[in-house]
Amino acid sequence: MSKFVDFMENKLSAPMARLSEQRHLLAVRDGVISALPFIIVGSFFLIFAFPPLPQDWSITQWATAHAAEILIPYRMTMFIMSLYIAFGIGYNLAKSYKVDPLSGAQIAVAALLLTLTPTALDELGFVLPMQYLGGHGLFVTIIVSILAVEIFRVCKQKRITIKLPEQVPSSVSRSFEALIPVAIVIILMSTITVVMGVNLHHVVDKLVAPLVTAGDSLFGVLVPVFLITFFWSFGIHGVSVVGSIARPLWEVYLVNNSQAVADGASTIPHIAPETFYQWFIWIGGSGATLGLVIAMLLFARSKYIKNLGRATIVPSLFNINEPVIFGAPIVLNPLLIIPFIITPIVTAIIAYFATSIGLVSPTYIMPPWTLPAPIGAYLSTGGDWRAVVLVLINITISVTIYMPFLKLYDKKMIAMEQGEE
């Protein structure tokens, strides 16, 4: 065990930490996170349009009759999330390069919009195909946003810009500095989309189709669950490492699910958006540590573990578990690492099969992640009471798995406390 811990600390920890701080991954992560307020608020209008109430209630009938109007805020926020994310990626990547972040954000948005081909409608004029501005176009959004900012950076570093005298206001000067990079991006994207007739979204769809299919399988769920808890066990922020890579795929699943509901489809296509992990697996935080905290309150006899349980129960109810991970500690603690990895794997398997066979509705709404799990699961499934039952079952299972390991650790802590006394 000591050799393994030494390998993790000296050989794997540093590369993984560097990967989690890689500027492009950070820009993608921060760009997606910057759009979360729009995704969360927009998704709630799906609940308003399709309230989880009996169909014969007057409010349900009113919502059904006015669903198109109610969904307008959803279509202007979550439905075109790629537009907001492109701005966020461009801003954060440009900022990391210490070039004008606003110009970087605007160039990224322009690059995304130029992947679309306007369609002429007699009564409306030219319109953009909005389906590519949602999660469906997220992979293209990431690629062209990074490309646009890299062009901007190279032009800035190579001084391929228009430099105005120092007397000119800085805002005007920055605008002219971005003139040549903007021209290059617009000409490049127009050449690809208009002159060559290449639909980047179709091309990327074909390339990532195997990844989309694999990520929604049981194996595709268990791999990130294992990796996130494995990295956390050694003090590496697993969500930052794995989530930076997987989150765009999870966002595609969520948007596809919400769109299916908005369109009145009979089935919801995906099992495993990020909300699936949040409400059915990470109950209390990574590692499903709410079960550990409950076990501390119920079974611990050492003073330290008892006090830790009392101190962390409220944060854990709201899915904040760093106090448990570093306070128990779970990090580099062989007795607690085992259930920390096993518990979410077991709950993931149960939740996956419960969703796949129709016992629980798939998630398609993103409530704030700090809600208690039963409430978040209920809202994320559009008001499916069975989701609450599944959460309670998984909490019970997590307590059961953590309990024997906690008792062993508790005995060790009791012996240490008695020795100190």
Automatic annotation (TrEMBL):
Biological process annotations from GO: carbohydrate derivative transport; phosphoenolpyruvate-dependent sugar phosphotransferase system
Q: Which GO terms describe its cellular component?
A: plasma membrane
Looking at the UniProt entry, the stretches that span the membrane are: 26-50, 70-90, 102-121, 133-155, 176-198, 218-239, 279-300, 320-338, 345-365, 385-406
> Is Cell membrane a UniProt keyword of this protein?
yes
> Which controlled-vocabulary keywords does the entry list?
Cell membrane, Membrane, Sugar transport, Transmembrane, Transmembrane helix, Transport
Q: Which GO terms describe its molecular function?
A: protein-N(PI)-phosphohistidine-sugar phosphotransferase activity
Membrane topology note: Multi-pass membrane protein
Q: Which residues form the PTS EIIC type-3 domain?
A: 8-405
Q: What is its main location?
A: membrane
Superkingdom classification of source: Bacteria
Q: Where in the cell is it found?
A: Cell membrane
The UniProt entry, under PANTHER family, shows: LICHENAN PERMEASE IIC COMPONENT, PTHR33989
Q: Any idea what job this protein has?
A: The phosphoenolpyruvate-dependent sugar phosphotransferase system (PTS), a major carbohydrate active -transport system, catalyzes the phosphorylation of incoming sugar substrates concomitant with their translocation across the cell membrane.
What protein am I looking at?
Answer: Permease IIC component
